[in-house]
Design goal:
Helicase, Ruva Protein, domain 3; Muramoyl-pentapeptide Carboxypeptidase, domain 1; five-stranded antiparallel sheet
Length: 428
């Protein structure tokens, strides 16, 4: 892609060694060199040392870093991400709206020539690009007004994900020093994402394309640059052009949950054998693809089979609720149905709080069902632990923290305490 080559040429004198920063997570030297410190001034000193060791100029290590200041609200927002605090139904209804569908369809018409070109060159169906655009910034209306430098530095100085955000700010320094961006234009989200499509600095550095051929990449003002970069990004990270993201499905009564592990892919034919159907009760298509069963609200909520492209979407944003929103909006943009379950069923799922989930994780750990450090997040380890607990106690093994799980584990722990007390009394 000639525009991509132009971009790489422009940063050539910086990129030959700083490209190592992008993959630094693979290196023990970088992986152990966290800059995190509760004292922000000390953290800035650590960052300056890290930048100096990476070969940046005094403009970066002195001027740019000296002017960085913390944003306390960023840490609060990091702890309250909607993926962790909203039910799936709440999350998707707030993002896949009639407004997103209406405006998204207008954007498809307005940019037809561009999308024709992008589909031909990169193999990314247009509805997905517009779906990302709508979900990230409501088609450019909300690109973020926080200082990207201050946001990234704040998160890099926090222990939780210090190394990730340290690498992001180092790659942002490369963009600044190579004059691909100016400090003045660096506004974005609280997490440091930038422009129409909310690219992190590393994604910008690796995948940016000058789509309008004006000699620069401007993901803030140029819709063409932003959408072309998005198409290049999805292409480079493995999008399979002839496949969809997945599909909503209908499970049969008395579905054999014990025969399906979550976060694991099986041939589509396997789900056919288990009686899984399309939402219109037609048989699943008979083609060779592997799929993962995902129940975002347990067996009482909607069910999805996720195909390999779903993992590509999650490379963009590591949230299954987000990725499902991308798929659902993309479907609606081209006239397909939205999520069938949400239009037909009353919400039968009782939401749980982060505190309740943390308590459940602690109890599961105490019983030998390993969830890792309790964090209140219903992730893969928690799904597997809950499923194992459900199977042991003859519950529906959907891996979801539903009322039956909470009630049963309280009873099991209570009984275990009584047995322990009785044994102690017998010994005494």
């Amino acid at each position: 892609m000639k525009s991509s080559h132009t971009f790489i040429k422009q940063i050539g004198r910086f990129f030959h060694f700083r490209k190592l920063i992008i993959v630094a997570a693979l290196s023990p030297i970088f992986a152990n060199a966290t800059i995190a410190d509760e004292n922000f001034d000390q953290c800035k000193i650590n960052l300056a040392e890290r930048a100096e060791n990476a070969g940046f100029s005094s403009y970066i290590t002195n001027t740019v870093i000296d002017n960085i200041s913390p944003i306390k609200r960023v840490i609060s927002l990091d702890k309250k991400q909607p993926e962790f605090t909203q039910t799936f139904e709440q999350y998707i209804k707030a993002r896949v709206t009639s407004y997103h569908v209406r405006v998204g369809r207008e954007k498809l018409k307005q940019n037809k020539k561009l999308f024709d070109k992008l589909e031909k060159e990169y193999g990314i169906p247009r509805q997905y690009l517009v779906s990302f655009w709508g979900l990230e910034t409501v088609f450019g209306k909300h690109k973020g007004k926080m200082s990207v430098l201050n946001s990234l530095a704040t998160l890099a100085c926090d222990q939780r994900r210090s190394e990730f955000f340290t690498l992001e700010i180092l790659n942002l320094f490369t963009l600044i020093e190579s004059e691909q961006v100016s400090v003045d234009q660096l506004q974005g989200s609280w997490a440091g994402a930038m422009g129409h499509m909310q690219f992190m600095p590393t994604a910008f550095l690796k995948y940016a394309v000058d789509g309008d051929n004006d000699g620069k990449v401007d993901i803030w003002q140029s819709e063409v640059d932003a959408l072309t970069t998005a198409a290049n990004y999805l292409n480079q990270i493995g999008w399979q052009s002839k496949e969809r993201w997945g599909r909503e499905v209908k499970l049969p009564e008395n579905f054999a949950f014990d025969k399906v592990s979550f976060d694991k892919y099986y041939p589509l034919s396997y789900f056919q054998q288990l009686g899984v159907q399309q939402t219109n009760k037609q048989a699943l298509p008979s083609y060779d693809v592997r799929a993962e069963l995902y129940l975002p609200s347990g067996h009482k909520g909607p069910a999805f089979l996720l195909y390999p492209n779903f993992n590509v979407i999650m490379t963009w944003n590591l949230s299954k609720s987000y990725a499902l929103s991308v798929g659902a909006l993309a479907n609606e943009l081209v006239g397909a149905k939205g999520i069938d379950f949400l239009t037909k069923e009353k919400n039968k799922v009782q939401p749980y709080s982060v505190v309740e989930m943390k308590n459940l994780q602690s109890l599961l750990n105490s019983l030998g069902f390993e969830t890792g450090e309790p964090d209140g997040i219903w992730g893969p380890k928690s799904r597997h632990a809950i499923r194992s607990f459900q199977l042991q106690h003859q519950l529906i093994a959907d891996g979801y923290p539903n009322t039956e799980v909470f009630n049963t584990i309280k009873m099991v722990v209570s009984n275990a305490k009584l047995i322990t007390q009785d044994n102690n009394q017998e010994r005494s």
